[in-house]
Amino acid sequence: MTLLPTVDFATTPEGVAFYSAYDLVLEKWPVDVTSVDLETQHGTTRVNTCGPADAPPVVLLPGGGSTSTVWLENVAALADRYRVFAVDLIGDAGRSVAGDRHPRTVDDLLSWLGDVATAAGLAAFSLVGHSYGAMIALAYALREPDRVQNLVLLDPSSCFVGMRAQYLAHAIPLLLRPTEKRRCEFIRWETNGQPLDTDWLDLDARGAEYFPKSKTIVPKRPKRKALDALAVNTTVILAADSKVHDSRRLATVTEPIPRLRTIILDRATHHTLPMSPAIELNRALLDALDTPGKTRQFGEADRP
Predict the structure, then answer these.
(1) Phi, psi torsion values for 209, nearest 5 degrees
(2) Which of 145-149, 211-215, 217-221, 234-238 is predicted least confidently?
(3) 178: preceding bond cis by omega (within 30 degrees)
(4) What pLDDT shows up at residue 296?
(5) Residue 300 has pLDDT above 60, yes or no
(6) HSE of 227 in the Cβ direction (CA atoms, 13 Å)?
(7) For 202-222, what is the mean pLDDT?
(8) How many Cα atoms within 13 Å fall on the side-chain side of residue 81?
(9) pLDDT at res. 214
(10) In the predicted model, is pLDDT for residue 123 greater than 70?
(11) Mean pLDDT of 116-145
(12) Is 274 within 8 Å of 281 (Cβ atoms)?
């Protein structure tokens, strides 16, 4: 897709409606939010922050197209103990504005994330990513382990195993011609019709059809040798009913990896996360972020 100047999009009827929908979801956050635009060599990154300024920092990366507003059910629990930095991915739907030197390679993408953290004044931080955001988070932790204190991957796409053919088949029409209707139908299919925040779903669907995006940069799946050398305490939180992959099979793949533990959440699908099931997920997130080191091993029968 062609990357258009955001100022052009913002003045179109579609842009006005998209940003109004974005602000509506952000207003639903149950905590005080400060929105900042951080400048890097790759453009301007919108970061929505909350929590005590002197609390340990945690950076949140959403799934593709979800925007940073998707954490509305998680920020209150996290902000009670952490300084939260929820990031709009550059080149994706949201309020980040890619510049002339927008990321074109995986190295660029990881440099962008490091530059954002530096611009936010973060020497080291915990990192939480969902779906595509988890792919970026894992790649960054493998490259910059000294900066990542704890790593949490929510139903990560293609980090450890490939995606199911059925999921990819359902995604093809959306990829070929993204529309609001197709995006909503796709999410309702994957979530088995579970209730989601309707304002967020409206925002997500508008972004799918109208937001001008650059080509998605996909980090390669790490080789097993690299995963065995992962130096960051990592928790993988899987959705029991995810249609992206077989979560129980994935759990058996990740179980032998040192410094990594796996949790499977009942009643969760790939696209209900991170909004639902909120209570169980927030409990698992806090456990992962609060506990240094690999203190216990989770198997597929474990439930938070």
Answers:
(1) -85, -40
(2) 211-215
(3) no
(4) 36
(5) no
(6) 19
(7) 94
(8) 13
(9) 79
(10) yes
(11) 98
(12) yes
The pLDDT value given to residue 60: 99
Q: In the structure encoding, which two tokens stand for residue 2, read together?
A: 């062609």
104 has a pLDDT exceeding 80: yes
* Residue 70 near residue 22, CB atoms below 8 Å: no
Using the structure block, give the residue that is written with the tokens 């709009």: 88
- pLDDT for the residue 6: 57
pLDDT at 299 exceeding the cut of 50: no
Residues 6+ apart with CB under 8 A from 188: none
Instruction: List, as one string, the DSSP characters of the chain.
Output: -----HHHHHTSHHHHHHHHHHHHHHHT-SS--EEEEEEETTEEEEEEEES-TTSPEEEEEPPTTT-GGGGGGTHHHHHTTSEEEEEPPTTSSSS-EE-TT---SHHHHHHHHHHHHHHTT-SSEEEEEETHHHHHHHHHHHH-GGGEEEEEEES-SSSSSPPPHHHHHHHHHHHHS--HHHHHHHHHHHTTT----HHHHHHHHHHHHHS--PPPP-PPPPPHHHHHT--SEEEEEEETT-SSS-HHHHHHHHTTSTTEEEEEETT--TTTTTTTTHHHHHHHHHHHHH--S--S---TT---
Contacts for 98-104: CB closer than 8 Å, 24+ residues apart: 98/3, 98/6, 98/42, 98/43, 98/214, 99/41, 99/42, 99/43, 99/44, 101/41, 101/42, 101/43, 102/3, 102/42, 102/43, 102/214, 103/42, 103/214, 103/217, 104/217
In this structure, the number of other CB atoms found within 10 A of the CB of residue 246 comes to 14
The answer to whether the beta carbons of residues 116 and 105 sit under 8 Å apart is no
Residue carrying structure tokens 């988890």: 134
In whole angstroms, give the CA distance from residue 200 to residue 202: 5
CATH number of this structure's domain 6-290: 3.40.50.1820
Share the mean pLDDT of the chain.
93
| pLDDT-derived band at 23, boundaries 50, 70, 90 | very high
